[in-house]
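batch job 7 of whatever, protein = Lrp/AsnC family transcriptional regulator
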Amino acid sequence: MFLEGLDELDREIVRLLIENARMSYSDIGQRVGISRVAVKSRIQALEQRGIIEEYTTIINPQKISGAVSCYFEIELRPDTFEEAVELLKENENITQIYRVTGKNRLHVHAVTASGEAMEELIRKVIDPLPGSVSCGCNVILSRIKDIKGLRL
């Protein structure tokens, strides 16, 4: 496996948590053949090492009436990069920000309650970003495959 330091037992525990993060230590232990206490210890070690970052509920915005989800590709001047990133991080509609290679320096995802709210986000946050050279926007029409985190 490509993750050094993760043995087969840890990988199986992580696989089970990916399937169901609410699975009890006892249920995991029964599935992998170790005690509940051993499972708890292994999971805590994975958390302390930063391999498991969090447990969360994922909401599908497309299932909420009227919600709009968009990806932006934003090219910024290097001298304004940090300032623009800070402005994006502060906005509650911005869900993901990635620094990427190539011409576009940021890949940004946003979700709003409506098309009007997305237009307002673009007009008030995205368009006036300091040092913006170019910006492309893609509205997500449907989710075909969406894997959260790393699959082992």
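notes: The beta strands are 68-76, 94-99, 106-112, 132-139.
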